[in-house]
Amino acid sequence: MAVIAIDRQGDVTTMNPAAEVITGYQRHELVGQPYSMLFDNTQFYSPVLDTLEHGTEHVALEISFPGRDRTIELSVTTSRIHNTHGEMIGALVIFSDLTARKRNPAPHGASRNASPHWVS
């Protein structure tokens, strides 16, 4: 699973190696940058903005993300991050690449969860 954390101001604070692989961006390129500038006008940005501004959490939302060298089909889950005092300090985006599965759907009757593939 890929993870990107965004602070209350909307800046990227961290990301894991799976997020680098899926997005095509290196950690040093994104950390400290406004999330909206990097992903402006994409469906990928909208759920995060909604979570930061309104607290709406999205679970397994399927979207198309225009990566550096290809469009990527993603399953995206967003959630607010709170400190120990309960104050909202940012948002977390957890996502996985669905591109291969969407290109090669499971045969009729086969379980999609029979052999999960996790990126870590």
From TrEMBL:
Highest taxon of the lineage: Bacteria
InterPro entries cross-referenced by the UniProt entry: PAS, PAS-like_dom_sf, PAS_fold
GO biological process: regulation of DNA-templated transcription
CDD domains: PAS
Keyword field contains GTP-binding: no
Pfam annotation, one family: PAS
GO MF entries: protein histidine kinase activity
Keyword list, A-Z: Kinase, Transferase
EC class of the enzyme, as a word: transferase
Residues of the PAS domain: 1-33
EC number: 2.7.13.3
Protein name according to UniProt: Sensory histidine kinase AtoS
Lineage, highest ranks first: Bacteria, Pseudomonadati, Pseudomonadota, Gammaproteobacteria, Enterobacterales
Gene encoding the protein: atoS_2
